[in-house]
Design goal:
With 233 residues, this protein is mainly alpha-helical. It has nine helices and three strands, in the order ααααααβββααα. Strands 2-1-3 form a three-stranded antiparallel sheet, with helices on both faces. The chain binds manganese (II) ion.
């Protein structure tokens, strides 16, 4: 079967779900780092067009994400890091090598990213809406702050919506493959939504027009995933 024709049967059988489904369902990366698997995509390469084109999606997933995964597994193989769950690993990432930090982050961040994208129309839950309004004033204000963080981030990295330990939601951006779970970042929290702003995420289709890519991102956000991550934070 061609991968672009493959649609994963999400939710049909939780018992048969792969290990990474724990991440989808709880948003907390509790699986052992050494047991990490390369996730199936939940949509076809062309499913997110025109927001994200098929070629970008294919290269991003099969080359970039796959390389982070492969290099991450190689970096932790036969080391104590392989025995840690991902959350603990990220919370102590300052004690790890740059190979573990960059590739572990790259593996996990893309996994989160694919999960929070969908071609299907979805909506924020009442609970998430309330939390966003409480933290940002309005949904529009949140979207503006998130999009601004994504557009203005200098160089390679990510923009995030996260839940802080104080219950507040916040927007942040991180360098390279860092994420809000890592002890090296300024604003720490539980990731709810992310956007990849590395040039490899948009350059084929948008060239230098990152702002246009960010604006179109809203058309393919999987709010069902964000709602679940918020519920299970
Ligand atoms: Mn990427």
């Amino acid at each position: 079967m061609k991968r672009r024709n493959f649609i994963a049967l999400v939710g049909t059988s939780l018992a048969a779900a792969p290990v990474w489904a724990n991440v989808y369902n709880s948003r907390t990366p509790l699986q052992k780092a050494g047991d990490s698997v390369f996730p199936e995509l939940l949509f076809a390469y062309n499913a997110l067009e025109p927001a994200i084109d098929a070629k970008t999606m294919e290269i991003h997933y099969t080359k970039h994400h796959k390389a982070y995964y492969t290099n991450f597994m190689a970096a932790i193989k036969d080391t104590p890091a392989a025995e840690l769950d991902l959350k603990s690993l990220f919370e102590g990432i300052s004690k790890q090598s740059m190979a573990v930090r960059n590739n572990g982050g790259g593996y996990y961040n893309h996994l989160l990213f694919w999960e929070n994208l969908t071609p299907t129309q979805t909506n924020p839950s009442a609970a998430l809406n309330t939390a966003i309004e409480k933290s940002f004033g309005s949904m529009d204000q949140f979207k503006l702050e998130f999009a601004t963080a994504a557009k203005k981030h200098f160089g390679s990295g990510w923009a995030w919506l996260s839940a802080g330990s104080d219950g507040q939601l916040f927007v942040s951006d991180t360098l390279n493959q860092d994420n809000p779970l890592m002890d090296v970042v300024e604003k720490k929290g539980t990731p709810l939504l992310c956007i990849d702003v590395w040039e490899h995420a948009y350059y084929l289709n948008y060239q230098n027009r990152r702002a246009e890519y960010v604006d179109n991102f809203w058309n393919v956000v999987n709010w069902d995933t964000v709602n679940k991550r918020y519920e299970n934070r």
